[in-house]
Sequence to fold (297 residues):
Amino acid sequence: MQTQIWKKLQPENYFGYGEKLSENIMTILSLVLISHFLLTRNSSVALIPAIFLMVINCISIIALYQYHQTIKAGIKSRQNMIETKFETIHNGPLQSLARVLKLVKGQELPINNLLPLIEKELEELNQELRGISNFWQQETLNQDTSLYLGNSLVIDLQNPLPEILYQVYSHTLERDFPCFKTLKLKIHNFETINESNLRIENKRRLCRFLEEALCNVGKHATGITYLKVTYSASKEYATLSIMDNGLGINSSKEGWGTKQFKNLAQQIKGKFRRVSLYPQGTLCELSWPLANSFWWQ
Fold:
């Protein structure tokens, strides 16, 4: 039996909208031609119905515009909802599944030793999927202002951003990623900054940015001993940065996470960069204009 949230994600048939739009355009064009004919006739009697038809044309055009905007808003809302759901799956269960695949492909262990490890990972994956399912099935009104992180942890996006980011930071570092095991020094600093220019959806994406960046550190920063995460302001920009001294990965391939980071940077009029550090390490950074800066306005 399908859940309510799955029904919400099912694609709608927008072809009906196109047919209605065509019908409305044809109707308006017909009214315009009739109005033109009446206005060009040398008869004062025809003037009144012509004016009446012109008024109807104006009303129809306004209604058509509003109808078009409603359709666009509905499609955009659906796309945002699908992206939000996929982000939850990508940063949670898919990360656990990647660990299972790495165990199967990379570990040269006897099958008797390997099976318990795989069983443990699959059990955690099962719990993650059930937790997400329960969260989506609640269908509460405050889900638009909530962020699910896993292990039944739900944070309120209406809270100040430094508080939210710290929750994401703490929760993600507790996850069982191999590179976190060699960490010896962890530094974090989340400043209080004017965030009035950020919508709830922006704050949600910033949290997912931090979570994804830390997951990448946990998976790829081999030999890491130092991690620094900061949220600070400098002149007219706010910056969220994640810096480590692990080996990382050298690849020119742009993954799903990188594409999402760039999209987020465009949404908040900011900049995203990921650079390799010398002699080793990676800096992942997202910056955007402050609410009172010239660049935001």
The longest strand covers residues 226-234.
